[in-house]
Amino acid sequence: MTKPLEGIRIIDFTHVQAGPACTQLLAWFGADVIKVERPGSGDVTRNQLRDIPDADALYFTMLNSNKKSLTLDTKKPEGKEVLEKLIRESDVLVENFGPGALDRMGFSWERLNELNPKMIVASVKGFSDGHHYDDLKVYENVAQCAGGAASTTGFWDGPPTISAAALGDSNTGMHLAIGILTALLGRDKTGKGQKVAVSMQDSVLNLCRVKLRDQQRLERVGYLEEYPQYPHGEFSDVVPRGGNAGGGGQPGWVLKCKGWETDPNAYIYFTIQGHAWEPICKALGKPEWIDDPAYKTAEARQPHIFDIFNTIEGWLADKTKFEAVDILRKFDIPCAPVLTMKELANDPSLRASGTIVEVPHKKRGTYLTVGSPIKFSDLKPEVTASPLLGEHTDEVLASLGYSQQDIFNLREVKAV
Ligand code: COA
Predict the structure, then answer these.
(1) pTM as predicted
(2) Is residue 169 annotated as a catalytic residue, yes or no?
(3) How far apart, in Å, are the Cα atoms of 226 and each of 213, 231, 309, 385?
């Protein structure tokens, strides 16, 4: 089967997570992704948090599947020459170096556009161009703080909190992938490449949209009725941390189930969806709440919502998180068990759908990774191993017209 992005050649000048997550996604969908890495060391994640001596770390293998690896010292004239050839024959260049690194290497946007006017140049930076922090290097947690996620995550009596989800890294990579695909479609119409830039701060803020909504509501009315601070607590003039409260109009909370005393994940998330109040009361064995004026409407429930959650925890006390969800699903109540990484890794549904996949690797043996979260009717993305450092150097150089002797010479000067 022909994959949708087959024939699109991508120079993958990315490292760590934000850029690699983007190019990995495009590789799954058929693009020919050539990862350009520094000879001898490569992407820093190859060595970070290794669990097997002398084998690429999982941090690398889980973000670089389906790619080729070309080692190239792009600071050497011989390396620059190879890169220039590659640029002339590629559709996209993706990079997430620190601010100014590509310019210092001699590959500014103007130069790249001159070398290949049809090429799309896609970048991730911590902050957008012209931002007063645009000189900063940025990692995940920095972005979560700069993008508004940290100030609104966690509990009101604790410090700003970082999410384990890669809102700054992989999320930015996904935004960049959308930008690249849009620019490729645009190129079909205009014949021209363009620059696509995504900042980690912007990408985090894009996911914190509802918190910016809340800031404006707070400024207008002085309170946020779906937050635990309402109606008994205090609001200042900034959106507070709301713990596990639901972000929309539906109150919800993480509730204890059987075994919570010893199992830190024996919890479910329970949502009190307004129109599901009657089924909730039936599920909980509290039919008298259905028409009780103190419970009947969302407004009436809010002042004592935590008493309601306490009652539900009483009901959950003799049920595991899985048993509880199995009962509640019959009443159409939006809920889920709090799942651990171990449970997800072994989840038969995720294995069957290809969301959790086993990948054979030359040095590591088989490892688990997250496959494509996007499902198609006519494409089943197959996840193949990440490349060893420089595994495809000869192949890529030969495809650019270099002879065996040329390749030998490039090795002699340590350019590849
Ligand atoms: N050959 C020769 N030199 C190479 C090379 C190659 N193949 N690949 C990279 N380099 C050089 C670059 O030219 C640059 O050199 P310079 O600083 O002397 O100009 C250097 O390696 C890379 O620098 P940088 O990207 O700043 O690396 P870093 O380890 O200091 O910083 C980050 C890492 C992630 C903080 C930084 O890259 C960054 O802020 N990136 C943008 C935001 C981002 O994506 N962050 C999230 C990562 S998950």
Answers:
(1) 0.97
(2) yes
(3) 13, 9, 14, 46
